[in-house]
What we know:
The chain is mainly α and 187 residues long. 78% of the residues lie in helices and 0% in strands.
Amino acid sequence: xxxxxxxxxxxxxxxxxxxxxxxxxxxxxxxxxxxxxxxxxxxxxxxxxxxxxxxxxxxxxxxxxxxxxxxxxxxxxxxxxxxxxxxxxxxxxxxxxxxxxxxxxxxxxxxxxxxxxxxxxxxxxxxxxxxxxxxxxxxxxxxxxxxxxxxxxxxxxxxxxxxxxxxxxxxxxxxxxxxxxxxxxxx
Length: 187
């Protein structure tokens, strides 16, 4: 059961929703944004969390949303999707997911509908992740560190030296035992 929970890849799913928002931004002609808003480079505002926006940035976003209503809808849905994982109880998180899927379908943006179908395919795994409140963030962090070591390892003569560098990065063999202990509960 817990193996399926980690397949939900909570952070990857949220990242995909943000990437979809960027794609919707590119659908707006650049001249139209520049003329209406008076600002270039507004795309990064879409990726910023609403609670971290300054008043000037919020005003810029409102001008951008006045130009493109679809972009506003995707922006709101992206923020709602992020809040699914912040529910206090399992039931509230599962209800938020179901309600988000209904609202995303109601918007009827073809690209978003395609993304919702992908979410529905992975829904059992995402629900398990919401129930267990367990993510694969820890394992993703370890994998990222190993990839950095691997990039630096260009020219190492053998795999054993690379393996020792990985063990050195994570401390001693005692830390490796802690990693296995952690995954005993999440897998």
